[in-house]
Amino acid sequence: MNHSLYSKIKDLDSKELNQCKLDFANAHFILKTIEYVISCNEPHFRTQQIVSYLYSSELKKTPIITLQNRYYKIRKRLLEYFNAKRKLQQTILTSEETRFYELTRTTKYNANEVDYENKLDALEKDLWDNNVFELLPLLLEHRLSREFERGMKFHSLLKKYKKAKLLQEDISQVKELRFVMAELNFKYGEKAIIEYLNKVEYLAQKNSEYLRFKFLYNYLCVYNKRKWDKLSDVKVLKKHLSVCKSIVAKYPRIPLFDYTIDYEKDTAIKIIGTEAAVLYFNYEYDKAEIALLSKIKLSQKYKFTEKSSLLRDIQNRAVTLIYCKKYSEAWQLLTETIPTSRTSDETSVQINYFYRALAIAHSYPKTPILQYDYLINYLKKLVTNNATKIATKLIVPYKVALSKLLVIKKDFKAAHRLISDSTVKAYLHEIVDYQLILDFYKLLLIHDSFKNKEYILRLKKKLYNEKNPQLMMEYEWYLKMGNRLLE
Hints:
The chain is an all-alpha fold.
């Protein structure tokens, strides 16, 4: 419960925080609770700590259980306040929904029937043009009821209504397939989703008159095929992405998946985020970094993205800056996000420091060596403390990053022990020439000038033949350090 209160208060921007304080202007202890949480850097703070802060003058004369109960009531009141605010925000309607409900609340037989029908016509046209099949059946049902009560012929309206209902069902099916594919892709990979992607393609062809289905199909092709190895695959994905961007540019109010308040802004964020991913995996790091920066700015402007997701975007941008060899910018970005990462889970904090280690290692010797000590101690603690909860897939990259920092600090024996670890061997063997990397660490220990020169030639040859920019950056680091340490 304390963690829930912590996250809700920490997620407030300055305007929301000021409004909250105004709402509780006459509640002294609630304001003190808010101040405590703002100054706290521990998401799971202990109840005893905040009770001592709130009621320091009463600790000796009032039973602790009484003071705790007072705090629980404050916490409950605050959580109810934030939940009510959230529900209020969720009840805000889209512009089309607002128009619809304003019209349906209007007296059935309005004094100006022509004007009323014109408004209904205009709304219906917008819903057809923008493929808003979530709302269209409701509008047509309303119009059918009006025609029926007035004894008018409604055959053509009924035909449109039935068509709208079928389109609504098809959109709902695509939305359901989206979640099925996401789960299967996560568990079993791309091949498991082909059948379902074909179903979406069929629905797009069946409803080719309506661009939303084409939009959804092309977006799902890109989103569900994010792991690729061939350049031709990336070119295909770029074509799918280009279709999405052209539809959004021409029809910005066509929904993607969720038809909610300001959905078009959410769609814009999704598209630019997907574009960043495609560019990144195509090694176009400069363009990917620009796309990520645009996504971050949009997310901050519209306040659509949760802070944990925004943090991931910022860290992803830092990674692209590293691959762009803009190490100082990456370092600055990562250090600026540390206060934010403390409000998130521990893994986010660890990843932040891991990327900082990469940035500072690859920027050497431009960075003062004193800045390495804290990172080395932090990473040592992570990889040696069994009590620390670290995802298995992250432990080995931490060890590799630590080994580089240890090389810079000239602790060659410790660096060699890390890189010789069986888990590191299994990890590196899949992505780089592990023997070439291991030989670097061995040569640091034996100081054989002939072997050193031979090794540098091997490394240059490997680098010359390498086409993958990420691996090139790796080999460039070993060549740079080899030229400094294996002379």
